[in-house]
Q: What sequence folds into this?
């Protein structure tokens, strides 16, 4: 593998992407939480 | 700064950036910190405190069980509170935060990232925990006492408590939010913040184990939250999710709980697999045997953990087809687990082994965790489980997995990375003394519980038939000996901080990976400029192995 070098701009881009990832995963967690309670309600 | 070893590349650790040019006050550094190392330290201190509190509860339990009859103050009701609180504190306060602390410290260092991806959320996810546990522990002092229905919170029993139910459920919600935020941070960090050159299949196994664990957390912590929310509304708002009198189904709670609970078991053991996969190659001076197989095995175990939950419920009653399915699906987990044990042994095979303290803990993990795995296989067999269910055999099984498994790996990791964290070595003699003391007493504590369980002694009962007296006394002696071990470790590490010899950047001869390319102690800020990496710097740079 050849050595690679990235810049601090690159880090900012990565942080932005990380925020997007976090939001998506957070949304999934909330959907699972809501989904299980909803399943409990609908099952009645 | 430049490379710290002749065989490593230049790594910019930016030591001069410490504190950003101004001296941080104690409050600024420890309460408002967004630094992954400081937050990792906070997690580890918190988890140590919880381990001591949880261990104190277990000493009460074992003192009560040291001989037949009721001898401890508080009576059976307080005994039930102690068993419940011991589990909640150890699982959610001890083991899980310890692994999150290790992830905070090591994941950014191992992937060449400057910090966790979301540092403020990182601070938040830690600081929720002390409040959650203060609330949970305060139930010991309220009217009616602490939750006493077991950590599984099965209704209707768990709902028979007083206001402690609300406290406990709120505390569990907070712990869940903390865990989910921690998991989001780990995933976002690993997927987005790896330095160029650290490909996913070149990451240390510890990072892989944590990435998979984080996905498990995201999938199941909301399930627990949903279950306890429904419990809360059943108790205080007149719903009947789990109330049979209102048309609900209490067994449904058990299904939902264990759909969370079984992956939770793996949440507490997968990072341990990662730690052991770091330590064994270092002290064997060989690459990890079957790196890719190890990663796929962790992923397989995580997948299987979702489809085996009802093996905790064989005695509840279910169709025969369901029992057979859950039995075989559970046994299937032995395959990827067997791959891991085989690969750990193969890593050591013909290696140039030395037995420094972390290696001793890691080897003990492999042997003793495997005993826990075997007893798990026994419990997976439906007809046998009818005999073992709710006996001390189950207690012995999960303590071999969680104490000699998860806890041993946490201790191994602490001794392994301590020189990197603090820049100090510890006394090998006393650290080994700590190890041997623990190994003797932990087996005295838990091994006889197999015999007690096979003979039919029920769990969660403060009194027992006199025929169980001898093994119970031995088990209690083990517990008293074990209770000394956290203080022993505290003494060893405290001495190291004050008087330990300075640690080099790479204190272990066979250690590979980015964390060993920065000085010891690791500077407050590392990899602010992404490092230039060659495959040789990575423990798994050459994925042909």
A:
């Amino acid at each position: 593998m050849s050595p690679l070098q990235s810049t601090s701009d690159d880090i900012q881009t990565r942080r932005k992407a990380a925020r997007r990832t976090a939001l998506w995963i957070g949304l999934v967690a909330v959907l699972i939480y809501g989904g299980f309670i909803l399943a409990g309600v609908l099952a009645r | 700064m430049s490379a710290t070893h002749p065989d490593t590349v230049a790594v910019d650790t930016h030591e001069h950036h410490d504190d950003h040019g101004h001296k941080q006050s104690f409050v600024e550094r420890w309460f408002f910190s967004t630094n992954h190392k400081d937050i990792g330290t906070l997690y580890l201190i918190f988890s140590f405190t919880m381990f001591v509190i949880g261990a104190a509860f277990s000493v009460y339990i074992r003192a009560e069980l040291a001989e037949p009859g009721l001898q401890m103050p508080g009576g059976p009701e307080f005994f039930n509170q102690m068993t419940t609180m011991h589990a909640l504190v150890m699982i959610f306060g001890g083991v899980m935060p310890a692994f999150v602390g290790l992830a905070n410290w090591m994941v950014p260092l191992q992937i060449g990232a400057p910090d966790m991806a979301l540092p403020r959320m990182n601070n938040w996810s830690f600081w929720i925990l002390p409040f959650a546990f203060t609330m949970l522990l305060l139930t010991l002092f309220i009217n009616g006492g602490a939750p006493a229905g077991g950590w599984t919170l099965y209704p209707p029993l768990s709902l028979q408590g007083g206001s402690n139910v609300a406290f406990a459920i709120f505390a569990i919600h907070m712990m869940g939010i903390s865990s989910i935020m921690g998991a989001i941070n780990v995933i976002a960090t690993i997927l987005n913040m790896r330095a160029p050159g650290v490909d996913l299949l070149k990451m240390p196994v510890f990072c892989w184990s944590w990435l998979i664990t984080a996905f498990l957390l995201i999938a199941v912590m909301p399930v627990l939250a949903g279950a306890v929310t429904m419990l809360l509304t059943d108790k205080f708002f007149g719903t009947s999710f789990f109330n049979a009198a209102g048309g609900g189904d209490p067994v449904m709670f058990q299904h939902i709980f264990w759909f969370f609970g079984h992956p939770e078991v793996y949440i507490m053991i997968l990072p341990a697999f990662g730690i052991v996969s770091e330590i064994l190659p270092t002290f064997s001076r060989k690459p990890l045997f079957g790196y890719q197989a190890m990663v796929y095995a962790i992923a397989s175990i995580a997948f299987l953990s979702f489809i085996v939950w009802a093996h905790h419920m064989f005695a509840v009653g279910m169709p025969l087809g369901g029992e057979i399915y859950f039995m075989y699906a559970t046994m299937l987990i032995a395959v990827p687990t067997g791959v891991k044990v085989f690969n750990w042994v193969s890593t050591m095979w013909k290696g140039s082994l030395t037995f420094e303290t972390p290696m001793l803990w890691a080897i003990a993990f492999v042997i003793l965790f495997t005993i826990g795995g075997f007893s798990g296989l026994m419990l997976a067999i439906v007809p046998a489980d009818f005999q073992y269910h709710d006996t001390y055999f189950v207690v012995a099984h999960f303590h071999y997995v969680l104490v000699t498994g998860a806890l041993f790996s946490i201790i191994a990791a602490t001794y392994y990375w301590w020189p990197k964290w603090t820049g100090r070595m510890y006394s090998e003699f006393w650290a080994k003394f700590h190890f041997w003391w623990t190994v003797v007493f932990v087996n005295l504590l838990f091994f006889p519980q197999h015999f007690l369980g096979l003979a039919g002694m029920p769990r969660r009962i403060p009194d027992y038939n006199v025929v169980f007296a001898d093994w119970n006394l031995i088990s209690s002696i083990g517990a008293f000996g074990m209770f000394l071990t956290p203080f022993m470790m505290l003494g060893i590490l405290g001495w190291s901080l004050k008087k330990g010899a300075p640690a080099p950047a790479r204190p272990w001869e066979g250690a590979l990976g980015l964390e060993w390319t920065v000085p010891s102690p690791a500077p407050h800020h590392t990899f602010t400029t992404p490092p230039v990496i060659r495959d040789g710097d990575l423990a798994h740079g050459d994925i042909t192995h």
Remarks:
- The radius of gyration of chain B is 23 Å.
- The first helix of chain B runs from residue 26 to 31.
- Chain B touches chain A through 42 residues (CB under 8 Å).
- Residues 1-19 of chain B have pLDDT under 50 and may be disordered.
